[in-house]
Specification:
It is a single chain. The protein is of the alpha+beta class. The chain is 29% helix and 17% strand. It has three helices and five strands. A five-stranded antiparallel β-sheet has the order 1-2-3-5-4. It binds adenosine monophosphate and zinc ion.
């Protein structure tokens, strides 16, 4: 199998921001977690509710995961997408899953983006946005509330 290269500047497992979110060494707005997966709001979202779903165990790309764990990751991502779309009253969503720097992966810990989209944004290029910490917490609260219903 061909190896997917990452530059050393991206850091290894001991210096991974998503591992730090898992261990609570770094802050985040967690919307869901179980013993193997975690979902939290993207700090620099493409849309309100943009969420990242990750395996807790460090791996750089989806090729580092066992196939049944990949299936479980997407099962969690699907559940999260339902909660996110309801929470922000979106009309659809994107799954984006980048593998490798060449594919614009900037955090070398496997993750699935769940990006909600509204009908009025159809076809429009989406820029990244910033929300205040209070807004982020409110969005996370709404998503958690919807997760509890699934
Ligand atoms: P990718 O380009 O697929 O590697 O996406 C990485 C995503 O992680 C980007 O959308 C970033 O905004 C997001 N991100 C980076 N650092 C953090 C963080 N500390 N908390 C939440 N999201 C983050
Ligand atoms: Zn990691």
């Amino acid at each position: 199998m061909r190896k997917i290269p990452f530059s050393s500047a991206m850091g290894g497992p001991g210096d991974c921001i998503f591992c730090k979110i898992v261990s609570r060494e770094a802050p985040s707005n967690v919307v869901y977690e179980d013993d193997r997966y975690i979902a939290f709001l993207d700090i620099y979202p493409f849309s309100k509710g943009h969420t990242l779903v990750c395996p807790k165990e460090h791996g750089e790309t989806i090729w580092d995961m066992k196939e049944h764990d990949i299936a479980d990751l997407f099962q969690v991502a699907s559940r999260v997408s339902k909660a996110v779309v309801s929470a922000v009253e979106a009309d659809g969503f994107r799954f984006v899953q980048n593998n490798g720097e060449a594919a614009n992966q900037v955090v070398a810990h496997v993750h699935v983006h769940v990006i909600p989209v509204k009908m009025e944004d159809k076809g429009r290029f989406s820029d990244r946005r910033r929300f205040t910490p209070a807004q982020m917490e409110e969005i996370a609260r709404l998503v958690r509330e919807e997760m509890a219903k699934t």
